Amino acid sequence: MKVFKDLMWFFYQEKKAYITGIILLIIVALLEMVPPKVIGIIIDHIKNGTMTKAYLGQWIGILLIIAIALYGLRYLWRILIFGSAVKLSRQLRNELYAHFTKMSSSFYQRKRIGDLMAHVTNDLQAIQQTAGNGILTLVDSLMLGSFVLIAMAFTISWKLTLISLIPMPFMALATSHYGTLLHKRFLKAQEAFSSLNDKVQESISGMKVIKTFGYELEDVESFRRQSNKVVSKNMDVAKIDALFDPTISFIVGLSFFLAVVFGAKMVLAGELTIGQLVSFTTYLGILIWPMLAFGWLFNIVERGRASYDRVRSLLSEQEEIQEVENAISTPPIGDIVYDIRQFTYPNETAPVLQHISFTLKRGQTLGLVGKTGTGKTTLLKLLIREFDQYDGQIRFAGHEISQYKRNALRASIGYVPQDHFLFSATVRENIAFACPEASEDKIIEAAKLASVHEDIEQFTDGYDTIVGERGVSLSGGQKQRISIARALLMNPEVLILDDSLSAVDAKTEERILSALKENRAGKTTIIASHRLSAVQHADLILVLDNGQIAQMGTHETLMNERGWYRDMYYRQQLESLVEHGG
Amino acid sequence: MDKLLTPKEQRQVLWRLLSYIKGYKTEALVAFILLIFATAGELIGPYLVKVFIDDYLTPRRLEARPLLWIAGAYLGVLVAKTVITYFQLVKFQELALNIIQLLRIDVFTKVHQLGMRYFDQTPGGSIVSRVTNDTEAIQDMFVSVLSSFVQNGVFVIGIFIAMFLLNVQLALYCLFILPVILWIMKLYRHYSPIFYKEMRERLSELNAKLNESLQGMAIIQVFRQEKRLRQEFAMINDKHYEAGMKNIKIDGLLLRPAIDVVYILSIIVVLSFFGISAMESPVEIGVLYAFVNYLERFFEPVTQMMMRLSLYQQAIVSGARVFALLDHTELAPGAAEERGTTISKGTIEFRNVSFSYDGKRDVLKHISFIAKPGETVALVGHTGSGKSSIINLLMRFYEFDRGDILIDGVSIRHYSNEELRKNIGLVLQDPFLFYGTIEENIRMYNRDLTNKDIVEAARFVQADEFIKKLPQQYRHQVVERGATFSSGQRQLIAFARTIAMNPKILVLDEATANIDTETEEAIQEALANMRKGRTTIAIAHRLSTIQDADQILVLHRGEIVERGTHQELLAQKGLYYKMYLLQNGLTDVEEYV
Questions:
Q1: Smallest CA–CA separation between A429 and chain B, in Å?
Q2: DSSP single-letter state for residue B334
Q3: I need a labelling partner for B53 at 20 to 30 A (CA). Which of A188, A317, B21, B261 fits?
């Protein structure tokens, strides 16, 4: 029941809805006591021959009113209580989303997206159940249950109530026992299902191997065995699941039997009327639900608690990149100075960057080259403050970057990442991602600068074409160029191209680079690339090796040194020859 | 891909799903008969109480013997009914599970019949979900919807039969329930799917938005769009909330609360009937009791049936998807009709083969070459030059239409698949390891192989050495596609797998991944051993591995641009020579550029 306490803040926030809803539930429970009673009264009138039209009309009128009242009240409490529960899941979902937007890269390295998704879907579902059905079962099992007992014991016979309730505890015991068994077997069935899933996944990934050896039939046979296991585990579940209904109806049947046998005795002894006996059995029928609700309640609460704990622990994750007090809120404009002694990723031991010192004057172009995994991207990510825990400092326009508000710093930087990620939206919306209110002309201008305008014109819907996961599939080069246009539209003080030209051909690369040169005169540009042609015209080129600066200079000076740069330059020339067939 | 299904299509899917019951006629019949008995047992109880009230209690006839009979019968029926109901429920579940099993195997078998083309076009995840998740949804329908419709339907009919037996006139009055319930059901069936679907759609929109945001969080943050996206998310969240509220409203208006009104109305009818008749003549109170009792039980099944309707919709959608896969026509290239053509020597000939995956752009153009028995033909070329396509055609992964491929002078179309698979061993670039032990990975499904054969195969390809160092040697468990092995070791296991079959023809797609120098040596030696006495077609990325090939074909954009031995090609100073330079130090490069 701890989860109810944990959720108290929400019940308090929605106190009007919950209090009214619970009162309505109680009224409903009270009204439900009436029809069995009416049945008994009418039977007694019939039996005693005292029935008149007026009487009958009166009681039937009461039943009609109750029917209508119940309908309205039942509808209302559903809206109030279930409605609040949906509200809770909406609120938590928004909170989680907002929280996710504050988390930095290291959070996303630790967590898998699939798990986060599962929290937002399954856990919220379970919490919603707790705030809705949890309250319902709590109120119903307590209130309705005690009302029925009171009605039976006080308006009919407490003796008969005690006798006929003897089997009922066994129902609670049996169903709760089945519940535990069922849960265990259900987990096994799920396991079997998930290994079946793995089996299929494996067969499909290894399809070529299977086809190569001609083992299609044998693989189907192995699938059949696995699938048989799923059937048998599910049968284990079914065998327990099927116990519920018969057990309940058996116990209820026994209760009825006791009620009728001992009730009849009392009727004969004159302690009870036949009408009361019929009322009594009808009450017994009503009592089944509160009994079941009680068992169900524990189930709901248990799941709700686990889920709520998980969600809470997610929400309590601290923001890693903190802003200093009185941080500067004007976006920086000026020179960039790196002076890093060492940087190591959180939870890792080997440093990724060591002794990185250089100065990039405003308006210059920096080229970063080197093997894969030598720290080019890491070096750039430090500038946009994806990570903070380095030894040394990075100064931008005279201040350490940690002195700026994150938003101010990022306002100066246009970043084109390595993995060109586009959203499922139109091309226009993707380019205008950072400036949603940008004019059509500006968007087209950016697209032209990135040499993607003509491609876009070719699409069926032009700039209104939906791209991204659920849209048309673009070539890697097109995605890269749209990402570039997206960053260019900001007209940022610093433009970072992190290996963002890898999928465009040499000619287009050249066109984009010269357009940039012209358009970005006076502004800083940083280009990380595998292809040396992309950095050939940079004012400063850094060759990284193993997280350290191995060579540094301009294209001309580096070509005069023996080293990685010159080797690689010739190598790439030859490669392009081979690519073109010699 | 999920377009809306018309009612007619929905019915077709339903019938096709139901047709799977045919295979389980007896079981279905047994389950149904048990159901009839269980229902009868359920209805006898109140009848016995009625007899007791009217014949013994009201007239105060208290004879021990008949009363004991009635009590005994009541308890007997109660026990019997309980037991029968249990088996009835289990039987229906079993039936449903077996039907799904049948469907699942059908789908999986079908997947194996499809050509590689299908796997290129369809993401693996979605195929997996056809076989497992969609059939699971259909299982839900069989388990919950169909069985509950049959069970509850029979129960409702049973109640009416019992009521007619007790009092025809009153039962006729009670028939009013049926049109009212049907009308409510119809309303619910009309409105609920609309709102339910809207909610599902909003939910999947929410999830899509969330998933995408999580994936692109770095972009969102670097472009400072957190606030805007939070608002966008909140907007979808609001819509989802509204859709959720609509569902609560429609359920509140038409489900339990409405059904309960009908229940009280039916009680009113019964009470009025008896009340009015009682004013004229005495009535049987037991009958009244029985009616009240029956009506009390009548409405729960009705609500249950209505609540299951949304599962039905899901299942039909899943069913349509599964059947679309089952009806897919892009099958793997068919096997030859005539049997008995066998591969004896292993000569391979490509005769003017051209091929296109999409029917527009040719990836192979007029490829012709011959590999004589025991010879090695190496294919080299840049990515996309068509090397892999040659292997895809030779392995019959794709059907070709222009030119011909012959083995021992006979078109490969005329060999049975079995004959081809038995004689051509392919080692893939990505040596896929399956879940299981090393032994099982070498043996695959070939039961004829003895343990000795397996060790010999491993020894032959130099894999024996590292396997022996593992804690459980050949019984060592391979985890997650062999992630604990180096790519070289995986390669060696794949070699052993192929060599254990002792094929006449070897097709090698060399691994591009970096292999540690230690294993590299073992691999080179193993390859040399394997090639001995076998016709070999090898794709080579490292030119050093195929220097001794009898013939090297240099491919560029689907054409063979150079051919000859290593020495001949070097002397030509063409494309091969440049590739060779690239891989073997750069001493001569500068003069070349």
A1: 13
A2: P
A3: B261
Count of domains forming chain B: 2
CA distances, A535 to each of A491, A547, B405 (Å): 20, 19, 48
Last residue of some domain: A290, A317, A344? A317
Buried-exposed string B424-450: b where 16+ CB fall within 10 A, e elsewhere: bbbbbbbbbbbbebbbbbbbbbeeebe
- Does B246 lie in the same domain as B376? no
Side chain identity, residue A215: Y
Q: Which of residues 216-245 of B touch A (CB under 8 A)?
A: 216-226, 228-230, 233-234, 237-238, 240-241, 244-245
Same structural domain for residues A169 and A81? Answer: no
Output DSSP code: residue A423.
-
> Do residues A44 and A128 both lie within one domain?
yes
| Domain ranges, residue A62 | 1-152+298-317
Query: Is residue A92 in some structural domain?
Result: yes
Q: Which residues of B touch A59 (CB under 8 A)?
A: 271
Q: Phi first, then psi: what are they for B587, rounded to 5°?
A: -55, -40
B268 and B395 assigned to the same domain = no
Same domain assignment for residues B278 and B419? no
Q: CB pairs below 8 Å between A and B: how many? A: 354
Which residues of chain B neighbour A213 with C-beta distances below 8 Å? 421, 444-446, 497, 501
Parent domain of B519: 348-592
Q: Strand B535-539 to strand B505-509: parallel, antiparallel, or no bridges (unpaired)?
A: parallel
Assigned domain for B339 exists: no
Q: A578 and B575: CB-CB below 8 Å? A: yes
Instruction: Say if the Cβ atoms of A257 and B119 lie within 8 Å.
Output: no
CATH number at residue A35: 1.20.1560.10
Q: Which of B100, B420, B428 sits opposite A208 (nearest CB)?
A: B428
Query: Is A326 near chain B, with CB under 8 Å?
Result: no
Using the Cβ of A66 and the Cβ atoms of chain B, whether some distance falls under 8 Å is answered with: yes
Q: How many domains does the structure of chain A reveal?
A: 2
In angstroms, the Cα distances linking B85 to A174, A507, B37, B455 are: 17, 77, 8, 56
Residues A164 and A308 both lie in one domain: no
B429 touches chain A (CB under 8 A): no
Return the SS3 of B175. Answer: coil
Mutate to test the interface with A, among B225, B445, B448 (most CBs of A within 10 A): B445
Q: Are residues B277 and B363 in the same domain?
A: no
Hey, are the CB atoms on B237 and A581 less than 8 Å from each other?
no
Distance CA B224, CA B233 (A): 16
Among the partner residues B210, B265, B435, nearest to A117 by beta-carbon distance: B210
Q: Clarify whether residues B109 and B146 are in a common domain.
A: yes
Residue A495 lies in a domain: no
Based on the domain organization, do B416 and B509 belong to the same domain?
A: yes
Provide the CATH number for the domain around residue B359: 3.40.50.300
Q: Which residues of B touch A56 (CB under 8 A)?
A: 271-272, 275-276
Q: Which of residues 144-183 of B touch A (CB under 8 A)?
A: none
Phi, psi angle pair for B436, to nearest 5°: 145, -165
Q: Across the interface, which of B124, B241, B501 has its CB nearest the CB of A201?
A: B124
**pLDDT per residue rounded down to tens, chain B (593 residues):** 445 667 788 888 888 888 888 888 898 899 889 988 988 888 888 888 888 888 888 888 878 888 888 889 999 999 999 999 999 889 888 888 888 888 888 888 888 887 777 777 776 667 777 787 788 888 877 777 777 788 788 888 888 898 898 889 889 988 888 899 889 988 888 888 788 888 888 888 888 888 888 888 888 888 888 889 999 999 999 999 999 999 899 888 888 899 999 999 999 999 998 888 888 888 888 888 888 888 888 887 788 778 777 677 778 878 888 888 888 777 777 665 556 677 777 788 888 888 887 777 778 888 888 888 888 888 887 766 778 888 888 888 888 888 888 888 888 887 777 777 878 888 877 777 777 777 777 777 777 777 777 777 777 777 777 777 777 787 777 766 666 666 677 777 888 888 887 788 888 877 655 556 566 677 777 777 777 788 888 887 777 777 788 888 888 888 888 888 888 887 887 888 877 777 765 555 555 54
